[in-house]
Amino acid sequence: MSGAVTKSVHDFDPLDEVLRPPIDETEQDRVIRQAQEAEARRVSQAIDDSIRAEKQAQKKKGIVRLLLLGQSESGKSTTLRHFQKLYTPTAFHEERILWRSVIQLNIVRSVRTILDALSDLRLPTLDSGGEDSDDGGANIPQELEMLQMRLTPLRHIEALLIAKLIPPSEDEAASVIGSSAISAYHSHRSRSSERSWRAQEVFVRPGATWKGALAKSTRSRPVSLGTTGMQTRDEAQEVIHSCSYDIMALWNDRLVREVLRRRKIRLEESPGFFLNDLDRVTALNYTPNDDDVLRARLKTVGVSEYRCEMEAVAGRESGTEWRIVDVGGSRSQVPTWVPFFDDVDAIIFLAPISSFDQVLAEDRSVNRLEDSVLLWKAVCSNKLLANVDLVLFLNKCDILDAKLTSGIRLSKYVRSYGDRPNDMETASKYFRSKFSAIHREYSPLPRKFYGFCTTVTDTNTTAGILASVRDMVVRRHLKQSRLL
Description:
Layout: H1 2-10, H2 14-19, H3 27-61, E1 63-70, H4 76-87, H5 89-94, H6 100-119, H7 142-150, H8 153-165, H9 171-176, H10 178-186, H11 191-199, E2 203-204, H12 209-217, H13 235-242, H14 244-252, H15 254-262, H16 278-281, H17 290-295, E3 299-300, E4 304-309, E5 321-326, E6 346-352, H18 368-381, E7 389-395, H19 397-405, H20 410-413, H21 424-442, E8 450-453, H22 459-480
Helix pairs in contact: 4-22, 6-8, 8-13, 10-11, 18-21
C-alpha cells in the first residue's frame, strides 16, 4: 500500500494539472482552446526559425579578428583610431568633441614638463658656480619666473581635467593616481611629493568608460560635429585661452629650448604635442579636427575589444564584422597577450624604430628598440600564431627622419648598422631587412612577410596602408571560409 502511495506522489506533474482541459469543457471551448494552442505553437516555431536564421546569417557573414600588438607608446591606440576614422566615420566624428579634454590635458602636461625642467635650475646653491648643473647656472631669468607665476592656474586645470577623465567613483581612479597622489598635488609643502605627482602619467582603460564620463559632462550640448555645441562654459578652455600667450612665450624662449636640449627632453617627438598649434587649439571655440584626435595622447592599460562594420565600404566587405583587440604594451601586460592568440585572423605589430636612442620607462636599463625586437621574436616564434598573418608597422618614421637629419648617429646605438649612410632611406631598409630576417628565421611555418614603414599620425599614407591590410586580411578570411 505504501508503495502505491509513493508511486502516485512521484508521478504527480503540476504542469499536467494546469494544461489538462477542464472537466466541464464544452465543444465550443475545446475548439477555441485548440486554436489558441495551435497559434502558440506557430509563434514558438517562428521564433525558433528566426534564431536559426540569425545564426546562419552570422556564420555566413563572418567575423574578422585583428590584434594590435607592440610596446607602450608604439602607436596601437592611434592605429585603432585610424580604423575607426576610415571605417566607422560617423561614430568617430561624433566623438571628436570628447577629445578636447584630452588635448587640453596634453597641453597642460607639456607646460608642466617644461616648468619641471626649469625648476631644477634652482637646485644648485648660488656659490656653486653651476657645477652641479649642466644648464650653466643656478637661477632663471626674472621673466621666466614671472611666466611660471602666471601659469600657476594650469595646476588647477590639470586636476580638473584628470577628474573629468577619471571620475573618483571609478575603480580605476585609485589605480591611476591614488588618493595620495591627489593630496600630493594639492600640497605644496613637500617638493619630493610634488615631483612624485608630476611623474605620474594619467591613463584610462580602453573602451567607452572615459568617453562616457566626458559625455555626461557635455550632455547639455550636442556632441556631433559642427560649429554649434560650444555654448556651454568650459573652464579648462577658458583658462588655457587666457594663458595662451604666456605658454607661447615659454615654449619659444631660447633659454627654455636650450635647457630642454641639454636634458634631452624632446617634446616635439612625444605623442600629444600641440605647442606648435597654440593659436588654434587654445581658441575659445576650438573643436578638435581628425588629425588632432589622431595625435592626442591618452595612455591606455588593459585589453579591450572594438567591434565595427566597414560602413565606408559598400562592396563585398560590407557584410564582415571586424573585431579589433587593443592590448596594453607595458612589460607587465605582455603576458596578457597570449589568451588572445587563439582564433585571431591577423596581427598588426607596431615597432617604433625612432626609439633607438631611448629606454623603457619600466626598466631604464633596456633599450626600447631592443625590447621591440625581442617582442617581435616572441610573436613570430609562437606556435599558436603559426598560421596567422603578421603585419609589421615600422612606426614613427617621421621622428626617425628628424633625428637622423639633426645629426644623431644611428650606429652609435645600433652597432650592427656600421658605416652605412645616416639617412632615412638607408635606415628604414636596414630595419626592414632585420625584422624580415627574424620573421623568416623564427616562424614555425613559412609565411609571407608584410612590412611597412609608417607614421600613423599621417592620415593619408596610413589610410592607404590600412586599406591594403584590410584587403589582405579579408582575402585570407574568405579563402579560409571557402568563399573564394
